[in-house]
Amino acid sequence: MPQDSRVRCPWCVSGNDLYIHYHDTEWGVPAYDDQTQFEFLILEGAQAGLSWSTILNKREGYREAFAGFDAEKIARFGMRDVARLLANPGIVRNKLKVAAAITNAQKFLELQEAEGFAAHMWSFVGGKPIDHALQTHKNVPATSKESDALSKDLKKRGFKFVGSTIIYAHMQATGMVNDHRTDCFRYRECVKLGAASTKASGKASARGSRG
Which residue from 94, 123, 142, 195 has the fewest beta carbons nearer than 10 Å? Predict the structure, then answer.
């Protein structure tokens, strides 16, 4: 339970301190960098069919087992690494999910080299967060037209465990959509972070075009 009186999104308040800290510091923060996007790609894929709290509790186990979320190292994992991972109680020991993480690292590197992974992801929301200005979480969608399109694109590129529901959760986590409830103290903070990130991203693009 929270240790202060600030209003939060209802989904987090019954969780442990790790869950609340994640809501208060990460969830909905716009991530324009490839590394953060890749970490959540791995974690969200691992969540499929499980609770997010399960994955958060295993996050450090994933960080250790998957080479600090280093895509280049993960992409080179072989049969011995797979066997090691499937024997590791610190992660979700699912053969399909482990294989998907390795495949996704390989596909991530291909897309990163071609145009930048984060830049590609953000292109599906016009380069800035979608603000749903939610009054309640009763009607939060599980998918959206944007997650449908992004999911279809990633599947076509060979990514695994990237269904629209998983991708929408990814978009929420990385601030591509702001689904904090409007009375949550983090809602306004994430709006400001989104505006600042969009402005900084625009300046960087302008510099790049002049270069």
Answer: 142
